[in-house]
Write a structure and sequence with these properties.
With 289 residues, the protein is mainly beta. Helix content is 7%, strand content 22%. The strands form 3 sheets. A 4-stranded mixed β-sheet has the order 6-3-10-9, with no helix packed on it. The longest helix is centred in the first third of the chain and has 8 residues. The two termini are 21 Å apart.
Length: 289
């Protein structure tokens, strides 16, 4: 594994029995090319590789037009990222909302080959615009949380120099509560694919509807990005409970400072919700290509 200090995600929390409680730091340590499995504190060996509920034929079709091999755009990680230590595919916990299944395919941006044993983390707000671990800070605004000023931020709480409008902090957050909903990590299988079950994200002032994603490979952060949704679908979902009670949305895709067309998920309806897919082309050797 590499020794990129910026990218290291080493959790020192005590492990509890069971794959769902395997810490992210331990998972990363287990995901080198020569380490396909991890061991919990009770000695049980678990394979961290993701599985999907979709057949190989269906997966190929899903990703056929879900982006290209062009290097995925890097964005700010936003003010509400931290290592939630939650390795799981279903990240809903008690959050209500429209069911959303997500499939991400991670590939190398130069060779276009799938990246197996890459760790994909996602996190997003709930229907009311709140982030777990930061409920008292994420009360509908998109600026940096108090107590976590980014380097270069002016003392009056404005954004740091050069930071995008809407989400300004590039530092990892120190959680202010013990909730961990709508946060989780999975490891890509040999096809570079992970799958999550969550709910359609809500919104907060200054940002369009989005999900944050981070890819780790060889113990380094090789991609930090965001994914967005077609506005017609956002409108449709937000007429339903529990979203309908959160009114006054002020920022849409065409007015968002981070949005790019390449960040749009390919979304289709399924069962009682939606399926969103996208390809992440990551700079796995961090050479800028």
């Amino acid at each position: 594994m590499g020794h990129d200090h910026e990218g290291q995600r080493v959790s020192r929390r005590r492990l509890i029995a069971g794959v769902s409680s395997l810490g992210l730091g331990s998972l990363l340590a287990a995901c080198g090319q020569d380490a396909p499995a991890a061991t919990t504190s009770t000695g049980a060996t678990v394979s961290p590789t993701a599985t999907t509920t979709t057949t190989a034929k269906d997966v190929t079709a899903l990703f056929a037009e879900a982006n290209t091999c062009t290097l995925t755009a890097t964005t700010t990680q936003g003010p509400y990222y931290f290592d939630a230590d939650k390795v799981r595919s279903d990240i809903r916990e008690d959050r209500k909302g429209t069911r959303l299944r997500l499939m991400f395919k991670v590939q190398d941006s130069e060779s276009c080959k799938p990246l197996g044993n890459a760790v994909v983390e996602i996190w997003h707000c709930d229907a009311a615009g709140l982030y777990s671990g930061a409920e008292s800070l994420s009360t509908g605004g998109g600026g940096r949380p108090s107590g976590n000023p980014p380097t270069g931020a002016p003392p009056n709480g404005g954004p740091p120099t050069g930071a995008p409008t809407g989400e300004t902090s590039a530092m990892d957050l120190t959680p202010t509560d013990d909730k961990r909903y709508l946060r989780g990590a999975q490891v890509t299988n040999s096809d570079g694919i992970v799958e999550f079950t969550t709910v359609w994200p809500g919104w907060y002032r200054g940002r369009t509807v989005h999900i944050h994603a981070m890819v780790h490979f060889s113990n380094a952060r090789v991609l930090t990005t965001q994914v967005m949704f077609d506005e017609a679908l956002n409108t449709k979902v937000f007429t339903q409970s529990p979203y309908a009670t959160h009114t006054g949305r002020d920022t849409f895709n065409d007015g968002d400072s981070i949005y790019k067309d390449s960040m749009l998920l390919k979304v289709t309806e399924e069962d009682d919700g939606y399926l969103g897919v996208i390809v992440f082309a990551a700079d796995s050797d961090k050479d800028g290509k």
